[in-house]
Amino acid sequence: MLLANSFFGGITMLERSFATLLIPAFACGILSAQELSQTRLHQPTLTPQNSGTTNGLIAVWPVNPQVVWASGRAGTFTVTTDGGQTWNASVVPGAETLQFRDVQAFSASVAYLMSIGANPTDFRIYKTEDGGANWTIQFENQNPNAFYDGVAFWTPHRGIAHSDSVNGVFPDLRTIDGMTWQDISNNMPPALPGEFSFASSGTCVTTQGGRNAWIATGGAAIARVLATRDQGNTWNAYDTPLFSSPSAGAFTVAFRDPFHGIVGGGDLDPGDPNNARTATSSNGGQTWTLTTPPPVTGAIFGLSYVGHSGGGVGDNGRAVVITANDGGAAWTPDEGTTWFALPGVSGFWAVAFASPKAGWLVGTDGRILKITF
Fold first, then answer.
1. In this predicted model, what pLDDT tens digit does every residue of 109-138 receive, in sequence order?
2. What would the pLDDT profile of 311-329 be if each residue is shown by its tens digit?
3. Residue 181 resides in a domain
4. What is the domain range of residue 252?
5. Count of C-beta atoms within a 10 Å radius of residue 132
6. Is residue 190 part of a domain?
7. Which CATH number do you get for residue 241?
8. For the chain, where are the alpha helices, taking DSSP H only?
């Protein structure tokens, strides 16, 4: 699609610029958000870690506070089994020219990677069952116009993969055995003209519980969220109030329970940087309400709920961290009513938490920050 395909041949200059103008602006050290003394909230602390690679990292997936996987450019993945004290980076053989836009893992041994590249067959799903020593290609795209943006799983054997629309249809996939992938395009709602998703952090698609999933879209006249309650058998499409255009829309979505979720988006057009917004839903994505505008610019590449901390971070697990690449990063203790910038933090694509004491941001040049509340 016009923007989602932006890193390769036949792709727009707009997103190629987006890919190259990722200027690090983080000074090494321990950072903390502004104080909110009147409520005595615990402020996040960010600690740099050595990822073991200088290749840009795009996606991150904590299995638990000790085991975390990340993936990115030049066929790179990196994994820690000690909470980030040491990371072991490697390159998947045969994938040296690909970008791993998503990673989902279930242990130190089992993980999936989703790649994009310059050719249709570069869109692949890989799986390892031995900690990355060996990888099996489970899916290799043959559709000349498909662009797979992300994967998400309910269990180690049940998951979905989402693509941009092709001729008004989303050629999405599903696995029910963790080995083979089937086309579920006939289950999907019709696509709007120009509708696609953003492969910015692998979080345009998310799952919750055993059957729920949501997909964030943009590119069309309306930014939407597609939702299923039955593991992808049936879907509904719901409008969001986020700005949408051929360079804008909803980039990233997360739900903390079957009903309460948050979606983030913005615009990749550098001439229109002030559309970074989040919206929340309390009815499973059927309706969305804009929050207070977050203190970032550009587009929100990734977001994650922090979860229950037991220590004053948010109410009912409503704390959220967002990252907007070179537009900054921020967090909210109350699902978007109040925001705090993370000073000096930029160039990060993805964020995810195993617990309030164990979160990670990953980004350009292989940089990783551990974030704790």
1. 999 999 999 999 999 999 999 999 999 999
2. 445 556 899 999 999 999 9
3. yes
4. 13-49+62-372
5. 22
6. yes
7. 2.130.10.10
8. 13-20
